[in-house]
User: Which sequence fits this backbone?
C-alpha cells in the first residue's frame, strides 16, 4: 500500500534554532519527492523536488535529503525564523501519470521568539 | 498578480444545495487539478484535466462534476451537498510532465 508518513506531527522551536523534519514512504514505483510549505489558510507552496538520483537539494535555509534505498527523506531548516511557522508536507509522486501524488499529513512547525 | 486563484475563499451552505467553486490560473499551464483537504489536513486528488480533457477521476461521488471551459479554468460543481463534503478544496496547475505544481489558496466549504 502506498503511504507517506511524517514525523513529528508537531514541533515547537525557538527562533534561530535548527530543526529536522522526517518523511518515510512506501511508494512504488517512485517518481519524485517534494516538500511543500503550507501557511495557515493558504495553499501549499513547493520548497524542493527531488528525483531518485538526487541525495540533497537546498533552497535557501531549507535543505532536503533523500535516501531512496531506505525510502526516507528529511527537511532541515537552518536558523529558523518566525515566518517558518507553517505545516510542512511531504509529497511522493508515483507511477508515470501526473496527479498520482501521495500526501503526508504534514508536520506543524511553530517557531517562537 | 495571483497565479492560481479560487473563488469563493469561504462558502457556507445548507445540506442539499448545489454550489460551484471556480479556479483560474494565469501561468499558461495546460494541466489543472482539484484536491480535497479533509479535517486531518490530508490532501487527496479528485480530478485532473489536461488541455480541457479529464485525465484523472478518482473515486469521487458523481455529485462532484468538474468543468473546464478552457485551459485556464477548472470549475468544480457540487450537487446535493452533504455534511461530509465540508473541507478545504484546493485547485492546482502545472505544465504536462512538470513536477512543480502551483496551488491556489483554497476554498473552505462548510455544509450545515
Assistant:
Amino acid at each position: 500500500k502506498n503511504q507517506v508518513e511524517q514525523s513529528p506531527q508537531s514541533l515547537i522551536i525557538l527562533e534561530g534554532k535548527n530543526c529536522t523534519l522526517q518523511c518515510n514512504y512506501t511508494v512504488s514505483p517512485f517518481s519524485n519527492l517534494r516538500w511543500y510549505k503550507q501557511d495557515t489558510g493558504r495553499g501549499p507552496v513547493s520548497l524542493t523536488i527531488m528525483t531518485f538520483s538526487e541525495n540533497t537539494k537546498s533552497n535557501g535555509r531549507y535543505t532536503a535529503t533523500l535516501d531512496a534505498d531506505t525510502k526516507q527523506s528529511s527537511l532541515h531548516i537552518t536558523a529558523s525564523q518566525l515566518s517558518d511557522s507553517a505545516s510542512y508536507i511531504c509529497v511522493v509522486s508515483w507511477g508515470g501519470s501526473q496527479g498520482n501524488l501521495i500526501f503526508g499529513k504534514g508536520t506543524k512547525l511553530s517557531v517562537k521568539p | 498578480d495571483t497565479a492560481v486563484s479560487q473563488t469563493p475563499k469561504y462558502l457556507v451552505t445548507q445540506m442539499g444545495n448545489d454550489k460551484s467553486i471556480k479556479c483560474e490560473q494565469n501561468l499558461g499551464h495546460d494541466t489543472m487539478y482539484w484536491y480535497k483537504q479533509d479535517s486531518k489536513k490530508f490532501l487527496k486528488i479528485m480530478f485532473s484535466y489536461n488541455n480541457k480533457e479529464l485525465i484523472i477521476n478518482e473515486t469521487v461521488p458523481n455529485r462532484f462534476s468538474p468543468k473546464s471551459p478552457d485551459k485556464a479554468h477548472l470549475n468544480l460543481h457540487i450537487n446535493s451537498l452533504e455534511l461530509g463534503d465540508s473541507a478545504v478544496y484546493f485547485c492546482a496547475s502545472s505544465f504536462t510532465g512538470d513536477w512543480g505544481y502551483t496551488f491556489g489558496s483554497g476554498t473552505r466549504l462548510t455544509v450545515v
